Amino acid sequence: MALSLCGILLCVLSFLSGYRHGWSDLKIVAQLDFTFRSFAWFFISVYLQIQFSHSNERKFPIILRIWWAFYFLMSCSYLIIHLGFYWKHFSLPILLGVSDAVSIIASSSICYVEMLGKGQEDEDFHLLESLLKSSSNRNNSDDRQESSVNSYANANLLSIVTFAWMGPLVALGYKKTLDLEDIPQLASYDSANVVFSCLRNKIESDGNSCGNGGQVSTLKLVKALIFLTWKEILWTGLLSVICTLASYVGPYLIVVFFQYLNSSHQVKFEGYMLVFIFFFSKLIKCLSDRHLFFQLRRMGNRVRAALYSIIYKKNLRLSSQSKQGHTSGENVNLMTVDVERTGFFSWYLHDIWRVPLQLVLALYNLYKRLGLASLVAFVATIILMLANVPLGKLQENLQGELMDSKDRRMKVTTEALRNMRILKLQGWEMKFLTKIIDLRNFETKWLKKLLYTSAMTAFVYSSTPLFVSIVTFGFCVHMGIQLDSGKILSALATFEMLQAPIYNLPDTIAMVVQIKISLDRITSFLCLDDLHQNIVHELPKDNTEVVVEILNGNFSWDLQSPNLTLKDLNFQVKHGMKVAVCGSVGSGKSSLLSCILGEVPKVSGAIKLKGKKAYAAQSPWIQSGKIVDNILFGKEMDKERYEMIIEACSLKKDLELFTFGDQTIIGERGINLSGGQKQRIQIARALYHDADIYLLDDAFSAVDAHTGTHLFKECLLGVLGSKTVIYVTHQVEFFPSADLILVMKDGKITQAGKYEEILSSGTDFMELVGPHKKSLEKLNSVEHEAALDNLINDKDDDDMLCDKFIQDDKVMESKSYETKMPNGPEGQLVQEEKREKGGVSPSVYWKYVTAVYKGSFVPLILLAQIFFEILLIVSSYWMVLANPDSENVRLHVTGFTFIFTYIALTIGGSLCTLIRSMLIVTVGYKTATLLFNKMHLCIFRAPQSFFDSTPSGRILNRASVDQSAVDTSIPHKFQELLISITTFLGTIAVMSQVAWKMLIVFIPMTVACIWYQQYYISAARELSRLYGVCQAPIIQHFTESSLGSTTIRCFDQEERFMDTNLKLVDEYFRPRFYFSGAVEWLCFRMDMLASITYAIFLVFLILVPKGVLAPGVMGLAVTYGLSFSMHGVIWDLCGLENKIISIERILQYACIPNEPPLFVKENKPSHEWPSQGKIDIVDLQVRYGPHLPLVLQGLTCTFPEGSKIGIVGRTGSGKSTLVQTLFHMLEPAAGQIWIDGINIFNIGLHDLRSRLSIIPQDPVMFEGTLRSNLDPLEDYTDEQIWEALDRCQLGDEVRKKEGKLDSSVTENGENWSMGQRQLVCLGRVLLKKSKVLVLDEATASMDIAADYLIQQTLRQHFSGSTVITIAHRITSILDIDKVLLLDNGHILEYDSPAELLKIKSSSFAKLVKEYTRRCSSNF
Question: How far is CA 124 from CA 136, 140, 197, 369, in A?
Fold first, then answer.
C-alpha cells in the first residue's frame, strides 16, 4: 500500500511538471509508468489484505514471489539504464531518479523478508512439528528454548542488513570467555528436527513415487537436499547475480574515469557523480557479498544437520550383515569427513553458473575496449577451461583413493583405541601403531599426489589471466590495434576480475568431484539393508498361554551362505515359564536369543511373540552417562520400583560407595565399572522395563558365587517370578529351577524338557552336566571332608553363617571400593573435554612453521610471494607508462620491446607462484606427517588411565577431522593469508604513491580494522573452539549407539536416541551458526571502511590539479583500488586462527605423559627370562593417583616357580589391581615385584609384557584373519598355530571353515561366538608358552565341559609354569597349590585349599560352602 501511495504521489508530481513545462515523449512514458505502478501495487495490497487478514497462513503464492524477484531485477535494470542515459547527457526527469531509489529499496526489502523472513520459518516449523514423534521431554525443552531463540530470528530489517543482531554476543565474548550456555538457541527453521524431517519426508515421497522400494540413489539424495534448501538457493542465486553485476561496474567505468582525468575541461559534478557510482557499486557488492556468504554457510549447516541425522537414523536400523560390511571406523569418516564436505559444497554451488556469467561480462567489456582482440582472449580462456576435463578426472581418482586409504586407517585406529587395554597387556600396542603408521604412509602417498596436482592446477589457473593478457595484448600489437592507457587499465581491471572465476574454477571442479564421491559414499550407506521387519509376528490376543513360539525355524546371519546358523527350531514357551538354554561353545545359544529378538535373518519358518521384550546381552552394553540413566533407560522414575530393583540386583552397596551415587558418570563402555557391576546394571535395566518376556544371555557369568545366587533368587525367581524368562547359562546349578531346558548343538535343539527328564534321555546334556558333577565330587573328596560336610549339613548354623558371610562381604566391598573408586569432590572420572582459553598462543604457529627443516623454507616462500607481487605491479606500470594517454599518440617503445618485456615480467611472476605453491605443499604434508606420527606415538605410549578417562570420540576427532585440516586446510590458509597481506600492501603502495596524503586515511582505517578484529576475535575464537568440542559427542553417541543397537531396538528406544542425536546436532550447530554471523559482522564493517576510504581516495584524485600526475598512473591506482579491502587480510587471519585450533588440539595429545620406556638397555633381561616363574611380591603399595588412598596396602608374598595360584576376593578387594601392577600397568607407590630375581619395575615395559601371558575377562578379536588374531607379530609357523588350535578345542571348527587359518574375522569378532573368542585368547597363550600365565575370569563365557577341558589343557601344557587364576567358579581354583584371598588391599589368607578348608571360620571355607550350598539347592 505504501508503494501504491508513493506511486500516486510521483504520478501527481509528474502530471504537474508536465502541465507546467510541457509534455515530452519521455515525460509521457514516465507518467504512464507511475500510473501502472500505482494500480499494480494497489491491487496487490488489496489482494493480500483479503487473503491474509483473517488467516494465520503466511505463505505467499509462488507467482507473487516470482513477480517480486522479477520486480527487483527490473528495478536494478532501470537504474543502470537511466544512469547510462544520464552519462550520455540525456535530460531525465528527476522524478525517475526518485522512483528508481524507492524501487531498489522496496524490492530489496520485500525479497529479503519474503525469502528468509521469520514468518515463513515459523510456518515451516509448525507444518513439520506434527510430523515429529516428539517425547514430552523434548516438547518441554522446546518450550523453554522458544524464550531464548536466536537473536537473528527476532531481528528487524536494519539489524539483519548490518548484522547488528550479532553485536550483543560479540560484546559478551569480548568481556568473558564464551560457554555453550551463553549462545542463544537456533531458530526453529534451522533446528535439526525440522531439517531432518524435511529431508526424510522428501526422500520417502520420492521413493514411493518411483516405486523402487524406497531405495536411495545419489540423484534422489541431491534432489532432496535441493528441496531442503531451495529458498536459500534462490536467495543466494539472486545475491550472486547482484554481486557479479556490481563487481563489473568498476572495470566498466575505469575508461570513463580515465577520460575524465585526461579531459581538459573537467566538470567537478561529473567527477563526484563518478565517485558516487564507484562507492555505490562497492556498497552493493559489500552487502550482497556478506549476505551471500552468510546464507551459504547457513545452507551448509542445514545440509550437514540433515545428513548427520539421517545417517544416525539409518545406523539404528542396520542389519548385522550390513554392519559387518561397514565398520565403525568407516562410519566415523562418513560423519566427520563426507558430511562436512557435502555441507561445504554450498560455497561452490553458484560457481557452476556464476563462472560462465563472469566470463561473459568480462569478455563483453574486453570487446567494448579492444574489439576483435577479445575473441582471442575468449579462445585462450576456452582452451584453458577444456584442460579441466583430464585434471578433474585425475583429481577424482586421487580423491577416491585418498578417502579409501583414510577409511582403512580410521578402521584400525578405532579398533586399537577400543581395545587398548588388551594391546598393552599383550605388548602389541607398538605393532598396531606400526600398522597405523604404514596405513598413514600409504594415505600420504595419495595425499602428496593430490596436493601436488592441486598446486599445479592452481598455478596453471592463477597464471591464466596473465596468459590471457599476454595473448590479448600481443594480438593487439601484432594486428596494429591502437592501445591507450584507458583501454589497458580497463583490460587489466577486467583480467583481474577474470582471475576470480578462473581461479575458483579448479576449486569448483575439485569440490564437485569430492562431493560426488562423498554423496556416493553416503548413498551407499543409506542403501545398506535394514533389519527385516517381518521376522517376528504378534501372537493373537486370545491365545493367553503361549508367549513365544517358533515353528520350523531356519535362520542364518548370512543369507548368502549355504550353512544355516539355526536349524529346525520348534518349541513353545508359555506365560510365566523359566526356560534355560545351554550348550557347548558356538552351539548357537546367543543366536537363539537374537533370533527371538528379530535380529537374525529368517530363511524359513515362523516366530511369534506376545508382549514386550527386555534383553541383557552377553557382553554388557553400558551407555556413557549416569548410572541412573542407564537403569531407567528412558522411562519415568518410579522411586519405589527403582529401589526394589537396585536391592534385587545387589547394587545398593555399590551405589553407596560412589561419591556421586547413582549420579556417577560412567566412562566409555563402562570403563570405570567392574565386569560384575556392568552386568548387574544391565540386568537392573531389563527388570525396570516391566516387560512380558525377558531374555538374559549368560547374565550370571561375570559375578561371583554368592552374588550369582542372590541375582538368581531375587531377580529371576523373585521380581520376575510371574514373567516369562529365557536365560542362557553355563552354570549347571541353575538348571533344576527351569521349567524347560533347551540343549543346543550345532545350531539345533537336540534335547528339550525338564532337568530330570533330559538328564537320562541323551548324551548332549550329560556332556555338559558330567564335568560339573566331577568337580563337585573332587570338592567333596578334599581332605577334612567330614568337617566340610558338617559345614554343609548344619542347617541352622548354615543360614546364619551364610548371612553373616554376605554381610561381611558387603563391609569388605565398602572398604575396598572406598579406596578403588576415588570419585572425590574433584569430580567425575570423565570430565568435559578440555579446550584452551584466550588467544591461540604464538608458540602454536611457531611450532607449526618450524616443524620441518626448522622453518628454513618459510623465508623462501615469503620471498617468492613478495617477488610475485613486485613483478605484478611492475608489469602493470610498464603497460601504462609504455603506452600513450590517448589513441592518437604513438607508442613510447617498439611493439616488440613492449610485449616482450611484459611477457618476461608475467612469466617471472608465474614462476614465483609455482615455487611458492610447491614449497607450501611440501612443508604442509611433511608437517602433517610429523604431527600425525608424534600425536599417535604419544597416544599409544599413554598410560591406561588416559584411555579410561578419555572417550575415544575425542581421540578419533583429532585423528580424523583435525588431521584432515592439517593435511589440506591449514597450508592453504597460510597461503591465502600470505597472498592477502602482500596484495593489500601492494595496493596501499600503489595508491599512496599517487596520493601520499592517503596515508592519513589509511592509518586510522587500518587501526579501526585492527580494533574491530581484536574486538571480534575473542568471541569468534571461542565459538570455533566450542563447535570443535561439540562435534566429538555426536561421533561418540553415533559409535555407542551402533554397538548397542540391538539393546536399543529391543527396548523400543530408537526415538529417544534419535532425539538425543538431534539435540547434540543442535548443540554443535549453535556455535557454528553464530560463528558465521560473527565473521560477517566483522567483514561488513571492514568492507564499509574500505569503501569509504576508496571514495575519499577518488575525491583526492579529482581534486589533484591537471598535469601534476599522469592520468595513466592515477588510473592504475584507481584500478588497484577496486580490490582494496583489509577484510581479505582479517578474514584469512581469522580463518587461519580458527583452523590452527586443530594444531592446538593435536599438540594437546602430543604432550600426554608417557608410560615408562618400552626398553631399558642397561636392564634388558636375557632371552630365556623368565625361566622358572618365581614371583616375589615385597611390601607392594599401589594407588590410582598421587593424592588418593592406597588400593594395595603392603602386600608381601611369594608365588613359587611352577605353582598354581588362585586369587579370590570380593569386588574391589584388589585382584585386578594386583594383575595390572604385575604387568606394570600401574606404578607402585612403594614396594617391588621380582620375577626370577629381576625387579619388573626396572626393565622395559615391552620386555616385561611380551614375556608374560594373560587371558582377559573380555575376549577380544581384531578385524582381519584368524591367523593375524592368533599371531599378530608373525612369530610362529602354520604348524604351531594348528597345534595350538587343536589344544584349545578349536581345530575341528576352523577346519570346517572355507578359509581355514585365513578365515575372516569381522569388527570386534562379531562373527565368532563369545566362547570361541575366549578359546582364541587361549590359543594365543598356548603359542606364547610363557612361564607366567594369568587367567582373569578366562572361562566365564564357557560351559562347564569346555571349562573342564581348558583346565585340563592348561594343566598339561603349563605344568612347569606359574599360573595365576582369578575366577568366580570355585571348581576352577580347587585344583591349585595355593589360594590368595584379598580383602581391602590386604592379604587375608594365603595357603593351600586343603589347609584353608580345615579352618571352619576361614573366608575361603565360607566361599566354598556358599558355592556347594548353591549347587545342592533347588532355589
Answer: 21, 20, 11, 50
pLDDT at 863: 92
Question: For residues 928-945, b (16+ Cβ closer than 10 Å) or e, as one string?
Answer: bbebbbbbbbbbbbbbbe
**pLDDT digit string (tens) for 934-944?**
999 999 988 88
pLDDT of residue 805: 37
Question: Cα–Cα distance between 834 and 826 in angstroms, integer?
Answer: 15
Closest listed residue to residue 788, CA positions, set 1406, 63, 217, 78: 1406
Higher pLDDT, 510 or 865: 865
Q: Which of 233-237, 413-417, 637-641, 1307-1311 has the lowest mean pLDDT?
A: 1307-1311
Per-residue pLDDT at 123? 38
Residue count of the chain, please give it.
Answer: 1419
Which of helix, strand or coil describes residue 530? strand
Amino acid identity, residue 564?
Answer: L
pLDDT tens per residue across span 1205-1246: 888 877 667 787 888 889 888 888 889 999 988 898 888 888
| Residue 915 CB neighbours (<10 A) | 18
Q: Per-residue pLDDT for 111 more than 60?
A: yes
Residue 24 and residue 48 in contact, taking contact as beta carbons nearer than 8 Å: no
Three-class DSSP category at 740: strand
CA angle 514, 515, 517 (to 5 degrees): 65
Q: Which residues, 6 or more positions from 924, have their beta carbon under 8 angstroms from its beta carbon? A: 451, 967, 968, 970, 971, 974
Of 159, 72, 88, the closest CA to residue 118 belongs to 159
pLDDT of residue 126: 41
Residues 6 or more apart in contact with residue 591 via CB below 8 angstroms: 555, 557, 565, 566, 600, 747
Question: Rounded CA gap, 728 and 742, in Å?
Answer: 9
- How far is residue 202 from each of residues 226, 227, 251, 529, measured CA to CA in Å? 10, 8, 45, 20
Q: At 54, which helix (H) or strand (E)? A: none
Provide mean pLDDT across the span 924-949. 88
Dist. CA 1221–CA 351, nearest whole Å:
62
CB 777 within 8 A of CB 784: no
Phi/psi for 408 (5° steps) reads -65, -40
Which residue type occupies 209? Answer: S
Question: What residues have CB less than 8 Å from 696, skipping those under 6 apart?
Answer: 615, 616, 683, 686, 716, 725, 726, 727, 728
- Beta-strand pair 1378-1383/1386-1391: antiparallel
